[in-house]
Amino acid sequence: MCPVRGKRIITFLAALLAVSGAAGPNVAQSPALSTKLHAAPTSPSDLALSGDLAGVPPGETRYLTRDDLIAASQPMTISPDDGNFKDAAKVRAIPLEDLPRAFGVPPTDMLIADCKDKYQTHYTRRYLANHHPVLVTELDGAPLSESKDDDYGPYMIAHMNFKPTFKILAHEDEPQIPWGVVHLEFRSEATVLGAIAPRGAHAGDAALQDGFKIAQQNCFRCHNYGPEGGLKSGVAWTVLTALAANSPDFFTAYVRDPKSKNPNTQMAASPQYDSATMAALIAYFRTFAPAAQGGSH
Question: Interhelix angle for 275-286 vs 248-256, to 10°?
Fold first, then answer.
C-alpha cells in the first residue's frame, strides 16, 4: 500500500458522536486502556504498542486485545474522501489523538503505525491535530480481516473527513491510511524526523526543506534510513541518495512512473510531480551523499 487543534478532545469526541448518529463509549469513559496492557500477545489480533509508554521499561512491547480495543471504540462513519472506501463506511474506531493521553505519552512524540507488510506511517502532532485520524477496529460490525474487499486487518487507520491542509510544489497533503496495522510506536518526533533531515550547511534552504517535507510524507513510508522508516520496498535511503546523485533522470522517471522501470514494483506513481518538485526532491536526497556531507564541514 505504497499508495490546529481548534477544540479540546472532548469537543471533538462529541462532534464524532453527532456525525455518526449513535452514542457509544469513548476512551475516557471505558476502562483505562493503560490497565489492559499485556506483557505478551494472547492472539494474532492483538495490537502491539511500544515506545514512550508510561510505566513500561524502554525497549519493551505491550499488547492490547481486540476485545479491549472494541470496548474503547465508538461508532463512526468514514467518508469516501478518506481514500479507503468507495462509499461511506460504518466502523468502530478510536481517535488516534486519544492514545497518547491514555498511555501517558510525552507531547513531543509522534505516533508510528507499523503494518504487516512492513509499510510504516508517521503521524506528526500537526497531522493528528489537523486531520483527526482514527484506528479502525471493526468494519460493518465485523473484524477487518473479514472484509469482502480486502484484507484490511487486523486494524487500519482512516479519517471521518479528510481535507488537505498544505501543498508543496506539486505535492498535496494526502491521507495517511495504512491497513494491516499490527503495531503502534510512540516515539520522539524530533528523533525520528531528525534521521532524515537534510544535511549540510545549506540544510535550511527552501528547496531542501520542500524536498524534505515531500520525502517525509511520501518516501519514508516504504524506505528506511537506518532503523527509521518503512521496510516494505527493501530499498534504503542510501540507494535513493545514490540514484538522485548519480542518475537523476532515472530517479525522476521512476518516481513519476515506477512500473515503467520495474513492472513488479508496488510503489504508487506520482505523475503530477513536475520539474520543480523533482528538482527539490533530488536536491534533498543529494544532501545525504558522502561528497555533499564532506563538503559541508
Answer: 120
Please give the DSSP secondary-structure letter assigned to residue 194.
H
DSSP 8-state class, residue 57: -
Task: Please provide residue 187's backbone torsions phi and psi, each rounded to the nearest 5 degrees.
Answer: -130, 155
* Cell digits of residue 290: 558522502
For the record, the C-alpha cell of 20 comes out as: 455518526
For the segment 164-208, what is each residue's pLDDT rounded down to a tens digit?
999 999 999 999 999 999 999 999 999 999 999 999 999 999 999
CA atoms within 13 A on the CB side of 166: 11
Structural domains of the chain in order of their starting residue, each with its CATH number: 9-194 (no CATH), 206-291 (2.60.40.420)
Q: For 70-111, write each residue's pLDDT tens digit.
A: 999 999 999 888 888 889 999 999 999 999 999 999 999 999
Within a 10 A sphere around the Cβ of 76, how many other Cβ atoms? 25
The torsion angles phi and psi of 71, rounded to 5 degrees, stand at -65, -30
Pairing of strands 179-188, 47-51: parallel
Q: Using CA atoms, how far apart are residues 26 and 10, in angstroms rounded to an integer?
A: 10
Q: Which helix (H) or strand (E) segment is 167 a member of? A: strand 167-168
Provide the sign of the torsion angle of the four alpha carbons 171, 176, 180, 181, taken in this order.
Answer: positive
- The structure's pTM equals 0.86
